[in-house]
Amino acid sequence: NAGVTQTPKFQVLKTGQSMTLQCAQDMNHEYMSWYRQDPGMGLRLIHYSVGAGITDQGEVPNGYNVSRSTTEDFPLRLLSAAPSQTSVYFCASSYSRRGGEKLFFGSGTQLSVL
Amino acid sequence: AQSVAQPEDQVNVAEGNPLTVKCTYSVSGNPYLFWYVQYPNRGLQFLLKYITGDNLVKGSYGFEAEFNKSQTSFHLKKPSALVSDSALYFCAVRDMKSDGYNKLIFGAGTRLAVHP
After folding, report:
1. Inter-chain touch B43–A33, beta carbons under 8 Å
2. Each residue's pLDDT tens digit, B13-60
3. Integer angstrom CA distances of residue A40 from A25, A62, A63, B5, B10
4. Within an 8 Å CB–CB cutoff, is residue A107 touching chain B?
5. Residue A35 — left, alpha, or beta (φ > 0 → left; ψ -120 to 50 → alpha)?
6. What percentage of chain A's residues is helix, strand, coil (to nearest 5)?
7. pLDDT tens by residue, A4-41
8. How many A/B residue pairs have CB atoms within 8 Å?
């Protein structure tokens, strides 16, 4: 039972480069979300989705895009990486379509932007 | 807006002693509260949640949390700490949005260090 799978685990980018963080879940959860974790700030919500074709912004959406073409996948795109986007990124899903319930987290992607 | 605060950056406790990790909340309406744990290089794992009912909630790995409405607190506790409990602990509250969808708001986290 894989749960929530994130790739890559580590990534180094140069300022201005773009990339996609992959997230897949095999639990048939409709709700999926992306958080970033920064020291002393906890986790902050970037974007979330309540089903295929439906996405919305969280607290810190600037510089990130998402799409949800299938129930299983929820990729996060960095359009033009900036040093301020250096962080650890977590994808999470929930059995509750409305969110706000127990979240299942991936193991994270550590991103450094130089 | 809903929020949680974790007043301690780090908690140190000796193995075998009881531990408490503090969390206070600010919500409008009834709070839905959660505790998560993060072990090194891992994602967060759910420990327990409070929705309603008994003020003492039992969760995974022998942890429990006490909900106190008058003090707006939701402290995480364990009667006897293990070295393997050393990790980063997050308190979270559900934020109900006007569009009917919810999200979890996390505290800054508290690092628990259990010494042999």
Report:
1. no
2. 999 999 999 999 998 888 899 999 999 888 899 999 998 888 999 999
3. 28, 20, 21, 11, 11
4. yes
5. beta
6. 5, 50, 45
7. 999 999 999 999 999 999 999 999 999 999 999 998 88
8. 64
